[in-house]
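Below is a filled-in request sheet from our internal design queue. Each sheet records the structural input a requester submitted and the sequence that came back. We keep these sheets so that new team members can see what a complete request looks like end to end.

REQUESTER: design group, bay 2
PRIORITY: normal
MODE: inverse folding
CHAIN LENGTH: 83
BACKBONE (tokenized):
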């Protein structure tokens, strides 16, 4: 199927996979580098004094493991774009 402006479906999906993979890698690297900042941006704003909240070691480890999984998924998605 050819879309408007002569852009084929394959090219559109390749760009989609590249963009989603790049954002996934970017967000995951942020989770690995600074899980506290990611927590503050997603959940910490709900607290009156988020600086006083102490995150557990398990939460920090889980955030970093999730970040590594996200980087792997992003790399696989980018590799898949060039299949």
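RETURNED SEQUENCE:
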């Amino acid at each position: 199927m050819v879309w408007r402006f002569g852009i084929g479906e394959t090219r559109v999906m390749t760009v989609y996979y590249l963009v989603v993979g790049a954002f996934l890698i970017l967000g995951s690297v942020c989770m690995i580098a600074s899980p506290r900042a990611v927590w503050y941006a997603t959940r910490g704003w709900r607290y009156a004094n988020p600086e006083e909240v102490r995150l557990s070691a398990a939460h920090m480890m889980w955030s970093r493991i999730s970040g590594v999984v996200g980087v792997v998924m992003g790399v696989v998605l980018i590799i898949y774009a060039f299949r």
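SHEET NOTES:
- The CA atoms of residues 2 and 19 lie 21 Å apart.
- The chain has a mean pLDDT of 89.
FILED BY: M.R.
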